[in-house]
Amino acid sequence: MLAGYNIGYATLAAGSAVMTGQGTLWLGNVRPGDLVVGYGNGTAIVGTVDSNTQITLTRPWRGTAQAAAVYEIVYTSDDVFAQALGRQVLQKISGSALMGLTSAVAAPRMGIRFDATSAASLFSLTDKALELLDDPDAAAMLTTLGAQAKMSGLAIPGGDYNKAIVSGIYDGAGAGAVNGPLASDNYGPLLVLTRAGAQVIQIAGFGGVTNAYHLSFRFSDNGGVSWTVWRSMLPEYASNSNGVYWRTSDGTQICLINYIASDTVNLPWGNLFNGRLWPGSPWPAAFTAAPDYYDIRSWASDNAGATLSAVGGGGATATTSPPFYLLSPVSGGTRSYGVRILGIGRWY
């Protein structure tokens, strides 16, 4: 290595720690600790080499100011540089939390940790901890911990949702499952979250030919001995041969039944005429108790006359809509009538 570097020119301003070069290539040729000698008088120590044309000194320039003048940078020997660097490292360590390790006795299979006050100390590493430290990524760590199988792909024990009480992600049990969100349907994955061995939450996805895909949840506080009812996490809509229904997570259920009734509306009833008493029909989904019910629309197939319906002949039950009569202000022959009955109640 050359004894120094003096290619190009340098500008040094009195009281400034910045040294600017003109035609210089300081990167790779100058390093911290080298000595700067000005054209007139004064010396300084290189703090950092910022670029090919800029150096920051360890202290502001005390010598004679110069502009684009000759200069000299005297290289510091490797021994001196190494000693200075070593002193800097030791100074930083002496003021850090690592000082807590000065009295510790090093031994195989030890690690360094910092407590809440940032004090350092040694601790023993188990075989499993060493395996984890050697793992290249999170997936490998999960394998080392044996957590992969518990996190996904678990089978629902015996296809019975009541028995899935260990935390993890379970595969759906299919249409043969029991105690799932909806009987005789196709189930998607099941997420089970268990706390303290007794409090269990199940979140299940399900859907099938007659039902759109839904998310439902339920809870057990005795380790799966008993459960709350399945409750929808999202508004649910489904239909079957009895009609359509909507369910919300707060327990509200709305059912709609469409009737096509062929009747002869010709029996006098005050100022109106009525037909026979039509029996109720099964709700498309059962309520927990008899719901409120309404006739929301009635019409004749040929639009002859204004046709009404009177519901409530005997009332509704949790599973069956109310009986009803067809009414009309005019007597008419046999024709088809459409009737829609709405039930509003709760599903849990």
Description:
The chain has helices spanning 78-94, 127-134, 138-145, 148-151; strands at 4-5, 9-12, 18-22, 35-37, 43-51, 54-57, 66-69, 72-74, 110-114, 120-124, 168-170, 186-195, 199-207, 214-220, 231-232, 236-240, 243-247, 252-264, 267-269, 272-278, 292-300, 308-311, 324-328, 334-346. 21% of the residues are buried. α2 (127-134) packs antiparallel against α3 (138-145). It is mainly β and 348 residues long. The model has no long low-confidence stretch (mean pLDDT 82). Strands 1-8-4-5-6-3-2-7 form an 8-stranded antiparallel sheet, with no helix packed on it. Strands 11-12-13-14-15 form a 5-stranded antiparallel sheet, with no helix packed on it. It is 11% helix and 40% strand. The chain is built from 4 helices and 24 strands. The longest helix has 17 residues, at 78-94. It has 4 domains: 4-80, Elongation Factor Tu (Ef-tu), domain 3 (Beta Barrel), CATH 2.40.30; 110-147, no CATH class; 156-234, no CATH class; 252-346, Sandwich (Immunoglobulin-like).
